[in-house]
Amino acid sequence: ATEKETYEFQTEVSRLMKIIINSLYKTREIFLRELISNASDAIDKIRFLSLTDPNALSANPNLNITVKADPTNRILIIRDSGIGMTKKHLKENLGTIAKSGTSEFLDAMEKGKADMSLIGQFGVGFYSVFLVADRVVVASKHNDDKQYIWESTAVNDFSIAEDPRGNTLGRGTEIQLYLKEDGLEYLDEKRLQNLIKKYSEFINFPIYLSVHRTEVVEVDDEEDDKPADTEDKPADTEDKPADTEDKPADTEDKPADTEDRPADTEDESAKKTEESEDDGDLEVEDVTEKTESKPKKKTKEILVEEWEQMNTQKPIWTRDPKNVTDKEYEEFYYSLVKNEGSPPLSWIHFKAEGEVDFRSIVYIPKKAPADMFKKVQDYSRNIKLFVKRVFITDEFLDFVPKYLQFIRAIIDADDIPLNVSRETLQQHKTLQLIKRRLIKKILELIANLSRDEEKYAILMKEFGTNLKLGAIEDNRNRKKVAKLLRFPTSAENVNVTSLDDYIGRSKKGQESIYFVTCTTIEECEQSPFLERLLARGYEVLYMNEPIDEILVQHMPAYEGKVFRNIAKGDLTFGDETEDTKKEKELLKEKFSVLVDELKSTLSEYVDQVDVSNRLTVSPCAVIAHEYGWTGNMHRIMSAQAY
Ligand code: ADP
Ligand code: MG
Asked: What pTM, to 2 d.p., does this model score?
């Protein structure tokens, strides 16, 4: 074996680790969620590779995760048969290359915007092991390398060495946590059972926990103390998951068949016998009175170790929506979004049939991320694509248009070829059909939500801008999206209005949808342009968002009614009479001297000075040319200039 090499943690990582190891954070149990999630990701990866490379799984065809406590040595061992890590991966992924999330997480923690439980979202979940352990040993075997051991006691450095035991894993990763004094509770079987059940419910691979139970066996006087250990091979037991028959790799639910997997080898059985005896194996005389005439037999209690599967549910999206509770949908959402702070605002669970078959659950989050429009790149991860329950990818850049990228979804399709590259996959016809159906469903979901005023207000606050972007960009669905928009309005007792409702209230013969732009609603209300319209009994929409003006440029009309900016050009209402026209002529004459004076003084700044009938109380207003930018638009454009 090669020499042990020592590396320093990248500075930020080291800072993070110090915080973690000294953390008094209460719910340290999240480390287990992070490890299970990493194990599951790793198995997803190897399974994905196996779709195009038939040999990818041969070193270890069983895809599963095992957890085992070793109380004697105070170690908790988590093992997976995932893709594993090469020496280079170990060095880079677990210490020397800081992800952008490292400093983001540190910042967020310092500012009190994040707590420890959000660590997974920042892509540094692995380090949470140091919440409970002060020494961590990771053995990993990747198909392209030998088995290596990464080891660290946190803080400054870690070491990597070839594993002196050779290849014991076949393929995958084994993580040994040497628990801190105050972390010993994680050796407790019941505690582990509860935690793993909680965190593994939506993991698509079997997770086994090594559990012990006592069993009373009869012993022949002459017979030796062979334990009844035949039941501890999970693959042979009846708790085989119900949903595996349709999984592509049908061998995957056997926890272990490599040499030193705890349950499967003779060595282990032997060790177990020892352990059983160590643990106070009781030898008792039969105490139960038997009515039968059988001769009395000697019995003894033995401790049996077996692998018990912790997750037995079918994937939630394959279940009938009628039988899934809200709580389950919420829990699934958390598993999907790596424990984002708040529960989802709404969701839809559906099965599409016809030109394309797939199942899907789509969620609308309750909060938009702070940097929604900046970090479009990250959004790819919000949609997870499965094919026949096999995870394929969440690395789509444009599965849904940008404006809908706030949704979280899982899609499980039937007729997508598996043996193609991701690139080819993205172009695939079926995927295009799925996209279209999905968008339709998302818009339906939002439309349904609009009946719940309270929730819709949240949606508008968080994602209203997205919908406006949709009305701008999505030519195919513009009309549908426009129906979902809401605007503050001058109408009495109306908080926000849809365009349909505006039209419903409009005056007879009204051909336009009037709006005023501004930065706040108060500013809209005080706009001098408003007076005339309100006086005439027209309703005016308040467009107080920068995107609004761009919206009306792209959507100049709705249901045949033209959007009219009341701060622009010459406003006519269609109800002017000859009298008003005459009156205007008279006023023009009366003020001609003033107008000429203003024209020459302001020639540098304005195009035109005119007498108008658009104002009632205010003496004058600066307005934009019909085809020019309003003051508001100037603000938007100069804000975007850098
Ligand atoms: P994330 O899972 O968000 O990438 P983590 O800090 O949890 O961040 O893990 C860091 C990286 O370490 C992973 O991206 C992966 O490359 C690697 N890794 C961690 N655990 C495993 C594992 N069990 N098998 C293979 N690779 C792993
Ligand atoms: Mg992780």
From this structure: 0.70
